[in-house]
Amino acid sequence: MEVKDLQKQKLAYKDVKFNLDTYWLDPISDYDEPVDHPLAIICPGGAFKFLTDREAQPIAFKFNAAGMHALVLDYQLIDDNHAVYPLALQELATTLNWLKTQTDHHIDLEKIVLMGFSAGSHVVANFNSIMLDPEQRSQIFAEDLTVEPSANILSYPVIDMTIGWPKDEDWAMKIAPDIYYWQAQEHLTKHGKPTFIWQTVTDNTVPVMNSILYAQKMDMLGIPYEMHLFGSGDHGLSLGTYVTQAPGNAANLNAYDVKWWELCLNWLKLRQILPRL
User: PANTHER family attached here (predicted)?
Assistant: First the structure.
């Protein structure tokens, strides 16, 4: 199984253009029929200032190795013309609808996973809370959502922007002038999808209570979830191995927390997104 195309796909929501990095799996030529593969859409972190490559291509390749297509979404960041919200949600919805047109890539549209890291997790959590509820979605996205995700993965997520990150309220206002978007857990409904969450309790950037609040709300609503809170490690670990270590940065390595990826794959098997064998 090989990765077919590594290229930027340009999409647009209304007059705003955005990019996807695409990591498609090649069909295996000696099969009688092509196999439809699950797909992950990855939203890297970066404080809504930039998108870190440490949570992009290395994660896409891990999904490819597990038998999944992968896309990295270049979602809206803070700039002189736009806030992050609601545009990032509209871009993600546009991406999901676009998948239905990509028949050449043999995507299993019933097995789409959204994955976020840090600030990117805020986009995913808000999508799960707001955009999967038809009433809330209709306020900001006029089209139907023709493809829905089946599950989410939140890595050291920002969930509630009032409990420690960002520390500057002015920055929060630049992310979302409408405070409706600040607290993802407050808008979660029964329409939300099963979610895997992991973080460290020693996270020195995003308080671990973010993960706990979202899991608590999912528990109240009866939405399946799995959460792993590790006892050590800084924010932004990504894979926690040398693959995603910035040169000389020992804080990017954590032998205890690297198990999150294996646990995540096990959960995807539990959700029948990946085969058990």
Answer: AB HYDROLASE SUPERFAMILY PROTEIN C4A8.06C (PTHR48081), PEPTIDASE S9 PROLYL OLIGOPEPTIDASE CATALYTIC DOMAIN-CONTAINING PROTEIN (PTHR48081:SF6)
Q: Where are the domains of the chain?
A: 3-270
157 Cβ contact list (under 8 Å, min separation 6): 116, 118, 121, 122, 124, 125, 197, 199, 206, 210, 211, 214
Neighbours of 191 (CB within 10 A): 18
- pTM value is 0.96
| CA 260 to chain centroid | 15
Which among 14, 49, 10, 9 is positioned nearest to 140, based on CA atoms? 14
Decide the pairing of beta strands 151-155 and 195-200: parallel
CA distance 225 to 126: 16
The gap from C-alpha 3 to its chain's centroid, in whole angstroms, comes to 21
What is the average per-residue pLDDT within 34-54?
97
What would the pLDDT profile of 118-173 be if each residue is shown by its tens digit? Answer: 999 999 999 999 999 999 999 999 999 999 999 999 999 999 999 999 999 999 99
Which three-class secondary structure state does DSSP give residue 251? Answer: helix
Compute the average pLDDT of residues 172-192: 98
Tell me which fold the domain 3-270 belongs to.
Rossmann fold (3.40.50)
DSSP string, 97-119: HHHTT-GGG-EEEEEEEEEEETH
- Give ∠ CA 266-271-272 in degrees, rounded to 5: 95
